[in-house]
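Reopening this ticket.

The earlier resolution said the output was attached, but the attachment link was broken on my side. Pasting everything inline this time so it's all in one place.
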Amino acid sequence: MTETIDRAAYEALMLSGERCAQAREDAQAVRSGDREAAKAIAASAMHIAAVAPEGLVDFYDALCEGWFGKRPNAPSVSAPSAPGRLEQDFLDGLWELVNDDEAGRDPAAITVRSAGLTALLPFEIHGRLAAMAKNYPGVLDAASSGLPDRFLLEDLARCPKDSLGGHLHSMVVDQGFDLEVLDRDALGLAGLPDPLAYLNIRILQCHDVWHEVAGYETTGLHEVAISGFQMGQFGHHYSSFFVAMIFAKGAFASPIEGVTLTLDTVLSAYMHGRETPPMLGVVWEDIWDQPISQIRESQGIQAYDSPYPPSLLEDLANA
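Inline output:
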């Protein structure tokens, strides 16, 4: 269980965000085995996710500089942040998840519970997220098409097996995946301010499409990684919150080697997302029948170069 003093220090940093400006130095310190720096990164990441989303790119770009010695080769995306607040029920839910050892075994379980926790954030954060999203390349053009229709399984069934649509059809029919990762109606996404409604619906709908095209496997480690990629692409809030939760669980519970693995994975994927041309505006429905290699070439997309074997978490669990 997390000690009271650790919880108090984490909450103070999370609410104030005072260590966000030291992200580069904290990343360097974690490379040297400093667990306190890992806790500071975790608190700063949750500050970005729950209190001040405007600072996401500045924070994660600085982490990349400290971790890799360079920032992503991508346009600046920033905006002034404003003070935020958090209610006690959110904090209680946060610690319940951090201290749940069973949840740490399955990234998919953390994804669902993290999404549930975002419902406890002050509603005004949605307006701030929507305003911030407009600064990302390609977002306004993509959102101008209106809320996307649902994918149809019969459309995918008509695609060649080696095409993007064929791969997605196999994932749904043969492997039991869903056409949308989470239920857009259950989450009330259509009621969010523009362009946030479009963004959250489209990425839940296209999550597995992005897995295929951007080169992320459907393993535990790569579910963590693709969250970093989605943050780099357009500051995806669910991904930001999920990553912050993973950082918190690691900083308080994992060996420092586990924290290093997580940072390496998230930041390499975040940099991949920042440096990949915007994928939100791609009308996948028009190119279902094309091979993934052809789509990558036409869209200028390089597959993710994973620093670890994609099945690493599963292999460790079965060892």
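Reporter confirms the inline version is readable. The longest helix spans residues 256-275. The chain has a mean pLDDT of 90.
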